[in-house]
Design a protein that fits this description.
- This protein is mainly α.
- Helix content is 86%, strand content 0%.
- The chain has three helices and no strands.
């Protein structure tokens, strides 16, 4: 029987791997747009981790809320940085 949060685990891993690859490319070539996309992928990874924590650790809402706030702050800062460029 498959767990209901396996898709979230896969998406979290894919977004972290994508962020690592794009981050390396952005640092080598100096593309600011790729850095912003990397930040958004890290925020997506945190959001997927929040969904996993909601389904696995129901009795620990403080950790889940912290992860959600981190993801939202990263998204806000990345969008603000994008408009500054």
């Amino acid at each position: 029987m498959k767990r209901s949060y396996e898709k979230f685990i896969l998406m979290e891993s894919v977004s972290l791997f994508g962020a690592a690859i794009l981050g390396l490319i952005a640092l080598i070539n100096g593309y600011p747009l790729l850095i912003i996309i990397c930040l958004l992928l890290i925020a997506a990874s945190l959001a997927f981790d929040t969904f996993i924590q909601l389904q696995v650790f129901i009795m620990q809402p403080f950790y889940t809320i912290k992860q959600a706030v981190r993801a939202l702050l990263l998204i806000l800062f990345a969008v603000a940085l994008m408009f500054q460029l």
